[in-house]
User: Which sequence fits this backbone?
């Protein structure tokens, strides 16, 4: 005890020195930042692996990661080319491809044409997935509850607050809905799933949904769950909850999903077929050359309205024609031979006509000193 | 400080000392300066790490500091997509969740420490003490998951309805606020789990401090006819006062910076000040954890690092306060405690 009587002095000294040092560094920071406007903190969360010619490096979105890894191991068996994919989030994927530490980046949200041009990247859709609405209501079966875009938007805006609200019971005659409060759950971390969901609300119920569309938005109400597992667990634990997760996640954890009314006015349940319908009804040709496509609220009787594509990003000016070709060969294999693996993992393969557009219109724009790398 | 001299022990396999040309049995003069150099290097490493950390935080948050200025500390909402970088909601959530944690953990830890030192058989004390220390070894993500699966539903389905049915339910700060979503994922829940996370630290240090109260002093108390309670309350606690305050500050520092468990439990509302402890909110550390992976624009990243700097400064401030408090107590007790 006696010892501590003396030990406070050095502590205080260290604290004071810290403040002094911080101020000093701040001074240095200001002089250097004024000349270079803003020194970008170089934190990519990504460790560079030495490039070897038989390994493709990729990084980005976590949503398609299980599929890319499955494709990687299958493809290594047939071609000998390995894939090293790091699931670090779409933002990290974009940073990594910009820094050229990977052969491709993956993002759940497409980049706009202006961003692509500015960063010198090309993008193309690789796989399609669906986002589903999950609820926790005792006595309500999977796929039983019906919701319109307006009702869903109203719930997420905080305008409809109880489950037995007339707007919901009107759609669901015969379903016993409790008089309890609706617990609204959303993602707390920035995510492609939120990007797709909020774009859907904006597109399908824009007069009610005014909170914007992005990977992370200022939510009017609700609680945030971290990651799909956070949202899923909150919904499963708390009765009266509503949330949104990727289809594969809801299916594998046996959650209660809802029906939605689509653009054509039909009631649809989430399924691989209804996501595929969205992908095939979308006007991909009009999305060229950037292939920026928001797949939500597409036409078609069988179309699930909250569908999104996951994208691949590559450098427009490639350094090494062989590496670029090797990478594209892998994707060509994924589009064709990888389709069965995609379906087995609850993803939707890209329709053949869209792949045709990609390899004829997008891939040839990638060049090594003016020479296209594909075909 | 006593000087440490290394004496070369005669080893059975042969005189190793001969290899460095020191006569057998003589004192090896090299030990002292070597240790001094080693100790100095270690000390410098710690200092470099501390100042380096502070420097990196300031350097990387500089774009945010120059662009946003004090707006970070005066606005509430954190919404990078809207160009809003307010830290008040996160500061309020950090403060509230820490207060809830300390209100639960401190009395509990003190009672457990007194129990272990004064009341139970030493064998029981060892077993229970080890169990409490093992709580500290559990990774925080595990606390987060247990909280999510067990404590969140219990609080939402049982505790909150009960609290709201009592007069407590109308007290401001407990009465559900505008953001109320059932109370499961809330500042209160995060605080409860935080309490269990800091409990082992406070308990272990308090116990060690209480153990150091001289037996003679306590026996003098008993000799004067004091009851066990009076001895604990008026002698042990007084004697251990400054050490217990130190223990509380160790727990406080940990509660302020805890990240993963809080990120899963606090409900993550970034745009509004909590009106009640049963409202969802956010803390500085959990906000950083949630937003870091998708922060790609320079300003977003820089603003998050500025949040880290704020947390760092708060922690340093609490350390200074703790030291000042200890000094005051020591003066008041004539340097005995």
Assistant:
């Amino acid at each position: 005890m006696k010892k501590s009587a003396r030990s406070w002095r050095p502590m205080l000294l260290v604290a004071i020195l810290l403040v002094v040092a911080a101020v000093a560094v701040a001074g240095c920071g200001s002089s250097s930042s004024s000349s270079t406007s803003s020194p970008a903190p170089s934190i990519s969360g990504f460790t560079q692996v030495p490039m070897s010619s038989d390994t493709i490096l990729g990084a980005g979105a976590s949503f398609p990661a299980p599929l890319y890894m499955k494709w990687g191991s299958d493809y290594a068996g047939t071609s000998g080319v390995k894939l090293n994919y790091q699931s670090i989030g779409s933002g990290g994927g974009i940073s990594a491809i910009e820094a050229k530490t990977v052969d491709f980046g993956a993002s759940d949200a497409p980049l706009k044409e202006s961003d692509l041009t500015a960063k010198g990247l090309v993008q193309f859709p690789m796989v399609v997935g669906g986002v589903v609405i999950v609820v926790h209501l005792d006595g309500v079966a999977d796929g039983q509850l019906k919701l319109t875009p307006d009702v869903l938007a109203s719930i997420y805006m905080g305008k409809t607050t109880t489950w037995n609200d007339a707007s919901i019971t009107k759609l669901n005659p015969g379903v016993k809905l409790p008089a309890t409060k609706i617990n609204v759950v959303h993602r707390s971390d920035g995510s492609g799933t939120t990007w797709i969901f909020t774009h859907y609300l904006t597109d399908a119920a824009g007069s009610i949904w005014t909170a914007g569309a992005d990977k992370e938005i200022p939510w009017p109400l609700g609680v945030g769950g971290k990651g799909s597992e956070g949202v899923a667990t909150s919904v499963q634990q708390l009765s009266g909850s509503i949330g949104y997760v990727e289809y594969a996640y809801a299916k594998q954890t046996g959650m209660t999903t809802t029906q939605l009314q689509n653009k054509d006015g039909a009631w649809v349940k989430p399924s691989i077929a209804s996501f595929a319908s969205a992908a095939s009804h979308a006007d991909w040709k009009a999305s060229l050359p950037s292939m920026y496509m928001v797949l939500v609220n597409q036409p078609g009787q069988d179309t699930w309205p909250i569908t999104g594509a996951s994208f691949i990003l590559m450098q427009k000016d490639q350094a090494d024609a062989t590496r670029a070709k090797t990478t594209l060969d892998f994707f060509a294999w994924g589009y064709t031979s990888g389709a069965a693996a995609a379906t087995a993992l609850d993803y939707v393969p890209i329709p053949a006509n869209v792949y045709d557009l990609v390899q004829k219109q997008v891939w040839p724009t990638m060049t090594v000193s003016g020479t296209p790398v594909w075909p | 400080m006593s000087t440490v001299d290394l004496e070369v022990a005669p080893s059975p396999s042969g005189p190793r000392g001969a290899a460095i040309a020191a006569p057998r049995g003589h004192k090896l003069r090299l030990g002292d300066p070597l240790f001094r150099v080693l100790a100095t290097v270690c000390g410098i490493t710690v200092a470099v790490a501390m100042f380096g950390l502070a420097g990196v935080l300031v350097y990387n948050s500089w774009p945010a500091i120059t662009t946003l200025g004090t707006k970070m500390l005066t606005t509430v909402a954190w919404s990078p997509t809207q160009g809003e970088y307010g830290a008040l909601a996160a500061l309020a959530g950090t403060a509230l969740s820490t207060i809830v944690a300390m209100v639960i953990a401190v009395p509990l830890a003190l009672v457990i420490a007194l129990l272990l030192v004064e009341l139970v058989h030493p064998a029981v004390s060892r077993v229970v003490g080890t169990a409490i220390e093992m709580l500290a070894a559990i990774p925080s993500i595990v606390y987060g998951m247990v909280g999510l699966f067990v404590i969140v539903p219990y609080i939402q389905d049982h505790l909150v309805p009960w609290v709201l049915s009592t007069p407590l339910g109308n007290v401001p700060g407990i009465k559900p606020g505008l953001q109320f979503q059932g109370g499961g994922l809330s500042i209160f829940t995060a605080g409860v789990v935080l309490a269990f996370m800091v409990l082992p630290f406070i308990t272990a240090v308090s116990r060690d401090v209480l153990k150091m109260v001289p037996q003679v002093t306590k026996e003098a108390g008993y000799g004067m006819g004091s009851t066990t309670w009076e001895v604990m309350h008026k002698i042990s606690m007084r004697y251990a006062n400054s050490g217990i305050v130190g223990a509380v500050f160790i727990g406080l520092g940990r509660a302020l910076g805890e990240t993963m468990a809080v990120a899963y439990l606090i409900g993550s509302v970034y745009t509004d000040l909590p009106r009640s402890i049963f409202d969802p909110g956010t803390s500085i550390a959990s906000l950083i954890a949630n937003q870091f992976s998708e922060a790609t624009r320079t300003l977003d990243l820089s603003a998050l690092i500025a949040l880290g700097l704020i947390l760092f400064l708060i922690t340093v401030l609490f350390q200074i306060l703790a030291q000042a408090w200890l000094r005051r107590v020591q003066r008041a007790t004539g340097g005995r405690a």
Notes: Chain A touches chain B through 60 residues (CB under 8 Å). The CA atoms of residues 325 and 373 of chain A lie 6 Å apart. Chain A has a mean pLDDT of 83.
